[in-house]
Task: structure prediction
Amino acid sequence: MDTKITVVRGDITKITTDAIVNAANSSLLGGGGVDGAIHRAGGPQILEDCMRIRARQGGCPTGEAVITTGGKLPARYVIHTVGPVYRDGTQGEPELLASCYRNVLRLAIENGLKTVAFPNISTGIYGYPKAEAAAVAIQTTKAYIAENQGSLEEISFVCFDEENYALYCERLSDD
Result:
């Protein structure tokens, strides 16, 4: 079975799926943007899981991912990944962003999940150019699922703003 890739315009905290992805910071303690919205909507259980992860491994490095409960969210789990802060594109940012997507998908498969919803990682306060981030997201996701056929049923890119939505739709139809 082929993995379906979709683009959705909306609020990731309202998506019913096995896991939503949180564009977290390395402290895993919540923050602004998507991270803050997920922590607020999901309730204290997510932060409690994040605190246990911090106690065990001291946070989450850029490009890596960890999984927690979904708390009060319609998603069963949250996979937290730390995207790179964009400097100039020559400091390993594309590789680190691609690593976020690969590590999230790896965790999803390891945990037997079938559906995953991604936000637009690193394109907010971390300053990653939206078009470049969309290209990395879609190319990395397609390459990963080609190597892991049949493991995931659906991967969604959930875009809060119209600009990202248009970029992901365009990029997905180009490939």
User: Anything to note?
Assistant: The chain has a mean pLDDT of 95.
